[in-house]
Design brief:
Layout: E1 4-10, H1 15-31, E2 35-36, E3 50-54, H2 56-59, E4 69-81, H3 100-113, E5 118-120, E6 127-129, E7 139-150, H4 159-172, E8 176-182
Antiparallel strand pairs: 1-7, 1-8, 2-3, 3-4, 4-7, 5-6
């Protein structure tokens, strides 16, 4: 089965504002009742970062026999990937997936230059910044992430992160994208 995570990434944040965004987002999660302080609750992959456990809005939805649920808040520029089968970004206009080998070099340049590249779809010629493409199964550079580690008994594993992303966008602004992690 492997490890699964959902990653909410705010592409509007740069390194200088990542720590402030982390505090703002964590406060939002707590104030909204989605997360709560849980000092012994952490994600094994991201154990060096600040994390919370489920808040009162989630506790009733979790299976009491397997209640694993962690929100990890990660400030600082990094490359986020799907994991074992990372693909290129997918065109939002026609659904074409770019060849990962053709765009991988652009990510290295992005990491070095701090400038998000634009992509052009090889099928329909749609042109947009990397973060505007569907990145669900791809890779991206981001300076702030919220990683959701939830066990398989959690209801709506795919819809819940989408809902959170839409609420974060509405309440905090920014440029949020959702990515999956599977190893």
């Amino acid at each position: 089965m492997g490890d699964h995570r959902e990653m909410l990434l705010d592409l509007s944040v740069d390194d200088s504002s990542a720590e402030a965004r982390m505090h703002e987002a964590r406060k939002w999660f707590r104030d909204s009742g989605w997360s709560a302080s849980a000092p012994d609750n952490y994600d094994l992959i991201h154990s060096k970062h600040v994390s919370d456990g489920p808040g009162p809005r989630l506790l009733g939805q979790l299976d009491p026999r397997s209640p694993h649920f962690v929100f990890t808040f990660i400030p600082g520029r990094d490359l986020y990937i799907l994991g074992d089968s990372t693909a290129g970004p997918e065109c939002r206009k026609c659904g074409e997936t770019t060849d990962i080998d053709e765009v991988a070099g652009m990510v290295g340049e992005w990491l070095d230059s701090y400038r998000e590249p634009d992509l052009t779809c090889p099928r329909c010629s749609w042109h947009a910044p990397w973060g505007n493409w569907d990145l669900s199964w791809s890779l991206v550079v981001s300076s702030f992430a919220v990683i959701i580690d939830q066990d398989s008994q959690t209801p709506d594993q795919r819809e819940f992160p989408r809902y959170l992303m839409s609420r974060l966008q509405a309440d905090l602004g920014g440029r949020w994208v959702l990515m999956h992690y599977h190893d």
